[in-house]
Design goal:
- The chain is an alpha+beta fold.
- Helix content is about 35%, strand content about 35%.
- The chain folds into three domains: about 70 residues, no CATH class; about 140 residues, Jelly Rolls, CATH 2.60.120.10; about 80 residues, Arc Repressor Mutant, subunit A (Orthogonal Bundle).
- A hairpin with a 7-residue loop joins β3 and β4.
Length: about 300
């Protein structure tokens, strides 16, 4: 099937041609007779190969156009696309946000994908450190378990965050357990090559110190929260902090069980405390979020429980 469209200077022709048992769409741009234009191009697209081929037409006044086939730039391979995706994930991480494209490409070249189903463990406390991790998607619950079997959540890491950097310098392995709260993908930054890169790039070492300092601030804040006298005060403090004192929805860090562990209590006690605040019309409780209805009343409860007013 051939269709032709004529414009002022060129004639556009497209046709479907059968080649090696497959149909291909072929488009030609041909200069009109008498023009001072001696080059035209034709593109041929194969929907099965998903690639274009270009033909260069050399116009000769004594002969009809003859074609010399040349290739368009080859399409990007799957490995190229994977590398681009890795670089994008690393750039979204604060630890690597200011690095050059060359450095990011080098790190992407040795990082390793790890896919985890919900409740899969990424590592266990005391396990030998393979390196540290960057979250690509999902959520990882980093926690400690007491001798009595009580789980204390340290932090739930999400996309763009890095964790377990301390394992690079620790001979005792990872200091906590890490479990997927939902289906997750992380990037493992292996120990040996990243330490070699840090040796060449002292500024990267300073960035990692900054990241670990941020994790330390989280731990100090959590310690302050756990010293509060009761579960209601801890929960109200968590709501005030995460709602920033405004009415609206606050996403849960995974499940209510994860929130209970973060607050240092049981799921049953958390449920009773949530129900009490809900009955007072202060909050609404959903499957994945808590809606703060009266932030001023919550702040007043917190001040009263802390003896500040």
């Amino acid at each position: 099937m051939i269709a032709t469209r004529t414009r002022r200077t060129v004639r556009l022709t497209h046709s479907y041609e059968r080649l090696r048992g497959r149909w291909q769409l072929r488009v030609k741009i041909i200069p009109q007779p008498g023009l001072r234009m001696n080059v035209a191009k034709a593109w041929s697209f194969s929907p099965w190969r998903r690639s274009w081929t270009t033909g260069i037409f050399e116009r000769d006044t004594a002969h009809s156009p003859r074609i010399t086939e040349s290739s368009m730039p080859s399409p990007r391979t799957s490995s190229d696309l994977k590398l681009t995706g890795l670089i994008g994930s690393l750039r979204c991480c604060q630890l690597f946000s200011g690095l050059s494209a060359e450095d990011l490409t080098a790190i992407a070249g040795f990082c390793i994908h790890r896919n985890l189903a919900k409740d899969d463990y990424l590592f266990r406390q005391g396990a030998a450190s393979e390196g540290f991790y960057v979250m690509q998607r999902g959520a990882i619950n980093v926690h400690r378990v007491s001798a009595a079997g009580k789980e204390q959540v340290i932090h739930v890491f999400r996309s763009g965050e890095s964790f377990a950097e301390a394992g690079l310098a620790s001979p005792t392995g990872y200091p906590a357990d890490a479990r997927a709260v939902e289906a997750s993908t992380v990037l493992l930054i292996p120990k040996a090559p990243i330490l070699a890169l840090i040796g060449r790039r002292p500024d990267l070492a300073l960035r990692m110190l900054g990241s670990m300092s941020a994790h330390l601030r989280v731990l100090v804040g959590m310690l302050d929260d756990l010293t509060l006298k009761d579960v209601e005060t801890r929960l109200v403090n968590w709501l005030v902090k995460h709602s920033h004192g405004r009415a609206g929805s606050v996403a849960l860090p995974g499940t209510k069980r994860v929130l209970a562990a973060e607050l240092g209590t049981s799921s049953e006690t958390l449920s009773r405390t949530l129900a009490k605040l809900r009955d007072q019309q202060l909050i609404a409780v959903g499957a994945k979020a808590i809606t703060v209805r009266d932030p001023d009343a919550l702040a007043a409860i917190l001040r009263h429980n802390l003896g500040e007013g």
